[in-house]
Amino acid sequence: MRQDLPFKGRHFTSEVILWALRWYLAFPISYRDLAAMLSDRGITVDHTTLFRWVQAYAAKLEQRVRRHLRPCTGSWRVDETYIKVKGAWTYLYRAVDSLGQTIDFLLSPRRDATAAKRFFRKALAQPHTVNPRMITVDKNPAYSRAVAEMKRAGELWRFSRLRQCKYLNNIVEQDHRRVKRLARPGLGFGSLRTARATLAGYEAMGMIRKGQLRDVGGRDMRAQANFIAKLFLPPA
User: Fold this and answer.
1) Which CATH code, of 3.30.420.10, 1.10.150.320, 3.10.20.600, 3.40.50.300, is assigned to 75-179?
2) Threshold 0.90, pTM exceeds
3) DSSP structure class, residue 73
4) 26-54 pLDDT, tens per residue?
């Protein structure tokens, strides 16, 4: 394939880079495993180069995918899980709607009302979300404080209802497993910056494979590959 502007200066074609990006972000494999898979196809690439590709394009993939997502419902399920970064545990805030569609994520070194407000603001700013009528969370008191403060500031719909019930959050807790499974082969992240970029890619591919795109099926791998190529490559 021709060298296109998003991949200018790379020693590999856009086809190879996007293939590696999709596979790393969709399946629980390490960079070394992915390098071996490419080698089996006659393409010799170092695992550090694969890491640089993910850091360069994963967050861009997430940003571009969001413009094509189906709207989420107004019932949010919010929870946080743990991700190891540079040997220390950090907090990954995540939300899905009542159908299991991904709403947003936020990686934070702290678990408090300030972090919860940052997460809600980020989620509300996405093009596929609406002001929630129901927010289901666990018993963490930071959520009630964050919601109350955002309502007073006019950042959140004043009729939004906060429901603190742990067992009703099973849908988002089950969804955490997908992210944990993808992150496990990497044995943790080296910095918050690299973790955020990689997690953005995990979430982007997760949304695609859940069928959240308007015109692409969640199980149609060929259609997904063509869609991602169109996001990065200008028309010929």
Assistant:
1) 3.30.420.10
2) yes
3) P
4) 999 999 999 999 999 999 999 999 999 99
